[in-house]
Amino acid sequence: MKKELVILFGLIILLFACKKDEPQADPKYVEEINQWHKRRIERLKAEDGWLNLVGRTWLKRGENKFGSAKDNDVVIESDKVPAYMGVFIFKDSTVTMKVNEGVEVLLNGKPVKEIKMIDDQKPNMTVFQYSTIRWNLIIRDTLYGVRFRDLESPLVKNFSGIERFPVTEKWRLKARFQQYIPPKEIIVPNVLGQMNKELSPGAVVFQVGEKFYKIDALDEGDKLFLIFADRTSGEETYGGGRFMYVDKPDSNGNLILDFNKAYNPPCVFTKFATCPLPPKQNYLNLRIEAGEKNYKH
Length: 297
Prior knowledge:
The protein contains 3 helices and 17 strands. The chain is mainly beta. The termini are far apart.
C-alpha cells in the first residue's frame, strides 16, 4: 500500500509539472501564434532572409579588390568564387563594380562587367550573383559596405528553430497610444556604435500588475515598430533586446500589445547584420516571459 501511495504521489507531481509548461491560452489563439512563428521562420530561411549571410566588409575610399584570396581588400569566405573577381571603386558617394576578365558575374541573370551599384536604401537595389553567392551594397550612416549571402548556407540547412516561452494570453495586453505632438526625436543606437536620430510618433503605454510601462515607438507605415529590453535580456533572451510590430491604434488610441510576438533581432543569428539597439528609455524594469528566447547556437 505504501509503495502504491508513493507512485501515486509521484504521478501527481509529474502531472502538475506538465501542466505548468502547457500554453496558458485558448487553443485557437495558440495556433494563431504558432502560425505567425512559422511564417517568421520561413522569412528567416528565405533567399533574402538573415540566415544565409556569410560576409560583410566596409569599403575604404578608392579601390577595393574582391574575391576569395586572402590578400583581397574584400575577402569572400567561400571556395565557390574565384581568387580574384574584380574591384569595388568607392568615390564620393558612389560605388562602381568592375569585374575581371574571365569572371562571369550576373545581374538579373545577365553578365555585367562594369556597373554603378545601387544600395539597399533604394527600392531598385542591385543584387549580383556568382554560383550560389549573392551580394549587394549597403549604407549605414557614413559607412558603405558589401554584404554577401550563400543561398546554400549550412545555417539555413541545419537551422532547428528558436526556443520560445510558452504562449500565454497573460502577455496579450490592452494598451494605449500616447501621441507626441510634434513627434519626439529619440536616439537609437546600433551594434556598430552609431547613434541615430529617429522621430517617435508616440509611446505605447501598458499596465502589468499595478505598474504602468511605456515603450517609445517608431513609425513603420501601417505598423508601429518597438525596440525594447527587459529583465530577461542577457539571460533567457538576447542581451541586445527584442523587436515587435504592433498595429496602429484605433480612433480612441487603443491597441493590442502581444508580447508572444516579440522576436530576436537578426544579430542573434549572424555577425553580419547591423541591428538597432533599444533606446535607453525602452529598457523596462519588468520580466517579459513571452516571445522568442535567445538563439544559443
